């Protein structure tokens, strides 16, 4: 039998990859599953985006290999989007790199900057991919606590007490996933100063800033951020294009060039039609965001009602695509709690534990279920 690489010994299959197999199996057995676990938007991109992609199919260059850096007009569209929505000026020639979803950017950045044994600061709770990719490249995860008592923001006194001599990258993400904590420009300023002080590459994962959030922010708004920072962003949630796989990494030109060296050896460019659709999406005006948030607001109200029906305490300050809720007193296991609901009521909710030890005692609901389905879930507890 051919043995697998040793790097697989320290990672596990992504939680949703394995758990959704179980959920699909239950559905195939006739269970009326309501999936509130995964943040895959069920809404459609705008018709203009779809039309742009369809029209692109007839272009004589549509089916050829594309540039590793994406179409110049796509990079310009991303630059315009950042200027118009975050008031951040970026050079589309060397400070922006389109990605096939921002998730691949986590791997590309890690491969570009981490050597075996380097350390990486990872939020707890936080996106599990930060840990798995760190392990895959042979680096060492170092977790920093985020707690509700500190509004899910880093404790800088605790950070300064760590041995930071081997830390190369620090992952952050505001609005925060899974809690929905907003963050602030003041927090970003502290993080940039911290990164400069300790010569750390600071990377902000920013796909949720337009969902139920009246104050979209970018780490790159902070003066001097480009000296030490990159930002990942995505069209998946903002424009309902999760399956299209369109993201971007932005910031320090030298760092962007390093990421391009990795990326250019791993794919042969993004499909032309997808790029054309993305260009159109990036032109969307305020009315688009308002229309999406009107839907998500109604869903959030219903989802909070469901959480409270379960005896949970909702983190009301949260924004983004999820509702974060604390379990009732006396419940010791988030995973047991959600499994009981899955098997008894056919409702899938995400346990907070998959995001780190500080997620124990919490559960997460995705707002990717129609309002009437959320009401159906509520009714199952009548």
From TrEMBL:
Where in the numbering of this chain does the Aminotransferase class I/classII large domain appear?
Answer: 32-381
Tell me where the transmembrane regions lie: none
A GO MF term: transaminase activity
Q: Which organism is it from?
A: Flavobacterium xueshanense
Q: Note the superkingdom of the native organism.
A: Bacteria
Q: What is this protein called?
A: Aminotransferase
Which positions carry the signal peptide feature in this UniProt record?
Answer: none
List, separated by semicolons, the cofactors it needs.
pyridoxal 5'-phosphate
Give the EC number: 2.6.1.-
Which ranges form a coiled coil? Answer: none
Q: Name one Pfam family in it.
A: Aminotran_1_2
Family to which this protein belongs: Belongs to the class-I pyridoxal-phosphate-dependent aminotransferase family.
| Key words of the record | Aminotransferase, Transferase
InterPro entries, sorted: Aminotransferase_I/II_large (IPR004839), LL-DAP_aminotransferase (IPR050881), NHTrfase_class1_PyrdxlP-BS (IPR004838), PyrdxlP-dep_Trfase (IPR015424), PyrdxlP-dep_Trfase_major (IPR015421), PyrdxlP-dep_Trfase_small (IPR015422)
């Amino acid at each position: 039998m051919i043995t697998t690489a040793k790097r697989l010994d320290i990672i596990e299959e992504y939680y949703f990859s394995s758990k959704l197999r179980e959920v699909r199996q239950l559905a195939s057995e006739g269970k009326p599953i309501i999936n509130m676990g995964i943040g895959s938007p069920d809404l459609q991109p705008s018709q203009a985006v779809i039309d742009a992609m369809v029209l692109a199919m007839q272009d004589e260059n549509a089916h050829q290999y594309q540039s590793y850096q994406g179409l110049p007009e796509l990079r310009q569209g991303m630059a315009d989007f950042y200027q118009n929505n975050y008031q951040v000026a970026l050079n589309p020639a060397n400070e922006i790199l389109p990605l096939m979803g921002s998730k691949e950017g986590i791997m590309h950045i890690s491969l570009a900057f981490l050597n075996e044994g380097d350390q990486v600061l990872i939020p707890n709770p936080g996106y599990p991919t930060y840990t798995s990719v760190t392990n895959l490249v042979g680096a060492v995860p170092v977790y920093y606590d985020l707690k509700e008592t500190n509004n899910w923001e880093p404790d800088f006194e605790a950070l300064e007490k760590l041995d930071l001599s081997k830390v190369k990258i620090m992952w952050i993400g505001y609005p925060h996933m899974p809690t929905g904590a907003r963050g602030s420009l003041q927090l970003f300023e502290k993080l940039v100063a911290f990164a400069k002080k300790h010569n750390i590459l600071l990377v902000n994962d920013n796909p949720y800033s337009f969902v139920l959030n009246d104050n979209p922010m970018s780490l790159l708004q902070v003066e001097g951020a480009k000296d030490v920072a990159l930002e990942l962003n995505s069209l998946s949630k903002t424009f309902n294009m999760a399956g299209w796989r369109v993201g971007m990494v932005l910031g320090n030109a030298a760092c962007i060039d390093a990421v391009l060296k990795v990326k250019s050896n791993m794919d042969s460019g993004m499909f032309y039609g997808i790029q054309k659709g993305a260009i159109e999406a990036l032109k969307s005006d305020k009315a688009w965001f308002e229309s999406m948030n009107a839907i998500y607001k109604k869903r959030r109200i219903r989802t909070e009602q469901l959480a409270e029906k379960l005896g949970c305490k909702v983190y009301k300050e949260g924004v983004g695509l999820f509702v974060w809720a604390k379990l009732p007193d006396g419940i010791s296991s988030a995973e047991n709690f959600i499994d009981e609901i899955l098997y008894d009521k056919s409702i899938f909710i995400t346990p907070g534990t998959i995001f780190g030890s500080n997620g124990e005692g919490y559960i997460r609901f995705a707002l990717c279920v129609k309002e009437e389905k959320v009401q159906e879930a509520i009714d199952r507890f009548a």
